[in-house]
Amino acid sequence: MSIKPLGDRVVIKKLEAEEKTKSGIVLPGTAKEQPQMAEVVAVGPGGVVDGKEIVMELKVGDRVIFSKYAGTEVKFDGTEYTILRQSDILAIVE
Amino acid sequence: MSIKPLGDRVVIKKLEAEEKTKSGIVLPGTAKEQPQMAEVVAVGPGGVVDGKEIVMELKVGDRVIFSKYAGTEVKFDGTEYTILRQSDILAIVE
Amino acid sequence: MSIKPLGDRVVIKKLEAEEKTKSGIVLPGTAKEQPQMAEVVAVGPGGVVDGKEIVMELKVGDRVIFSKYAGTEVKFDGTEYTILRQSDILAIVE
Amino acid sequence: MSIKPLGDRVVIKKLEAEEKTKSGIVLPGTAKEQPQMAEVVAVGPGGVVDGKEIVMELKVGDRVIFSKYAGTEVKFDGTEYTILRQSDILAIVE
Amino acid sequence: MSIKPLGDRVVIKKLEAEEKTKSGIVLPGTAKEQPQMAEVVAVGPGGVVDGKEIVMELKVGDRVIFSKYAGTEVKFDGTEYTILRQSDILAIVE
Amino acid sequence: MSIKPLGDRVVIKKLEAEEKTKSGIVLPGTAKEQPQMAEVVAVGPGGVVDGKEIVMELKVGDRVIFSKYAGTEVKFDGTEYTILRQSDILAIVE
Amino acid sequence: MSIKPLGDRVVIKKLEAEEKTKSGIVLPGTAKEQPQMAEVVAVGPGGVVDGKEIVMELKVGDRVIFSKYAGTEVKFDGTEYTILRQSDILAIVE
């Protein structure tokens, strides 16, 4: 992976429907169209962001639920990623 | 429960109408459609959130009243949960 | 009373028109429909709320004037209460 | 007077047109309908309000000009008062 | 002058067109209707305003340019004044 | 120049099209109507502005690019100036 | 390059489609019309910006993904640049 997010940002890759079913999570309603579950593929360094000290709690490989509509989508080598702030990640699923 | 909320977030499960009646709470008007009472099923670690030190006052099992419209709904193993910030919890009912 | 408000929140019970008349307060205009006077029935612990140290100045039994539209209404054992922040309480009436 | 404002709030009583004329102040335009001059009848304790130390500069009896539309009106023993924050008071008239 | 502004507020008196011409300043367009130049007639004490230490840089007699639409207008002994915050004053003209 | 900006404000004079061409800068599109390049003609003292310590990085004579729509326009001795905050200046052109 | 951005701002030059393909990044949808990838051509000094200490993490030559719509466009010697804050840069691509 060669996208290095800045500050408190992370790069995530949305999980496909079948992957979510395996892990036991099903998102309500239009979930298939707006998946909210993803895997973390890159984590920014944290540090002082907007004047506040941010410690990164996430690590690569974490499966997370995130606020839909949050972040910016980019395509890299044919795969879609979302770049968003750690604070837009709601929870880690284990 | 395998959803670990981040920061000052908690995961709650809304209580059904009969459960609320047992505890003596009845919510006004369209309460059946928009239940505001729930049980806490997971509590984030708190710590520094958005530059502010947050101490978690809630614990798993607390019955709480929360701001309707607050939070994000997810379905897990067939059950619906809501992930929201501790500050969206109004009160503990005992 | 078994509703324990969190942080800087208080639980109040609106006073009926006759009770207000006894205490000499009459609210203008549509006051009967939107009573702004209430009695405090539960007080949160205060402490650090949203990163700021809040000392609770109110105590159970205080008669208060509050911002209408502020807070969330809940029904408990047949009685309606409002949960709101201490900062939405304008004054104590003695 | 038995209304004790909380925090940085003050209770004021609007001055009638004739009183304003005596003091030499005339407010422009629709002033008769929206008087902006008042007498302070109660002053809150100040202290830490919304995380900031507020020192009350006003005292009972001060004649003040205030932002119209600011504050909440209440009627007490037949007299109308306005409860508003000290920061909504623009100036003292002497 | 007997209007004592509170906090970081100042009282200014707008300059008439002829006075502005004397000082060499002409404001563009509809300047005659919306004069932005004024003389300071009273200065508040400054100090901690909204939790921030404010030092007053203006003094009575300063000729200033200010943000139009800023402030509140009052009439006193037949003269119109504007009460506004020091931060709404853009520059001193000398 | 006799306009002394307050706080973190600066006074700038927009550069004419021919002046911009000389310096090699051409602004896109409707640049002739909305020039974004200017010369600094006066710099405020900086200091504590809105509770924050501001150090002025600009000096008289700097050629700058600024946010269009920012600031207030005034005419002085037949010349138009713009008064705006240093933070509305994007870059110095050398 | 003779544009010196102020504070936490950087100057970037958008990458053309062919350049992006070389680096393996393809942006989704209307990417050709709204490229989000760019090369950093100038970096401000950082320091205290809006009261907060900002350390510049970017350096000239970095290839970055940035928030579209962020920043201000200027043309210099026939080339278009965008001036924006470091916080509008999402990630470095390596």
List keywords for this structure.
homoheptamer, 94 residues, mainly beta, 10 Kd Chaperonin, Protein Cpn10, Chain O, two-stranded antiparallel ribbon, Chaprnonin_Cpn10_CS (chains A, B, C, D, E, F, G), ATP binding (chains A, B, C, D, E, F, G), Chaperonin_GroES_sf (chains A, B, C, D, E, F, G), cytoplasm (chains A, B, C, D, E, F, G), protein folding chaperone (chains A, B, C, D, E, F, G)
SSE layout and pairing:
7 copies of one chain form a homoheptamer.
Chain A: E1 3-5, E2 9-14, H1 17-23, E3 25-26, E4 37-43, E5 47-49, E6 52-54, E7 63-66, E8 72-76, E9 79-85, E10 89-93
Antiparallel strand pairs in A: 2-4, 2-9, 4-7, 5-6, 7-10, 8-9
Notes on the structure:
The structure is a homoheptamer of 94-residue chains. By secondary structure, chain A is mainly beta. Helices cover 7% and strands 48% of the residues of chain A. Chain A contains 1 helix and 10 strands; from the N terminus they run E-E-H-E-E-E-E-E-E-E-E. Chain A has a 6-stranded antiparallel sheet with strand order 8-9-2-4-7-10, with no helix packed on it. A two-stranded antiparallel ribbon of chain A has the order 5-6. Chain A is globular and about 35 Å long. Chains in contact: A-B, A-G, B-C, C-D, D-E, E-F, F-G. At the A-B interface, strand 3, strand 6 and strand 10 of A face strand 1, strand 5 and strand 8 of B. Strand 3 of chain B pairs antiparallel with strand 8 of chain C, so a sheet runs across the interface. Chains A, B, C, D, E, F, G: Heptamer of 7 subunits arranged in a ring. Interacts with the chaperonin GroEL. Chains A, B, C, D, E, F, G: One of its GO terms (molecular function) is protein folding chaperone. Chains A, B, C, D, E, F, G: This is Co-chaperonin GroES. Chains A, B, C, D, E, F, G: Keywords: Chaperone, Cytoplasm.
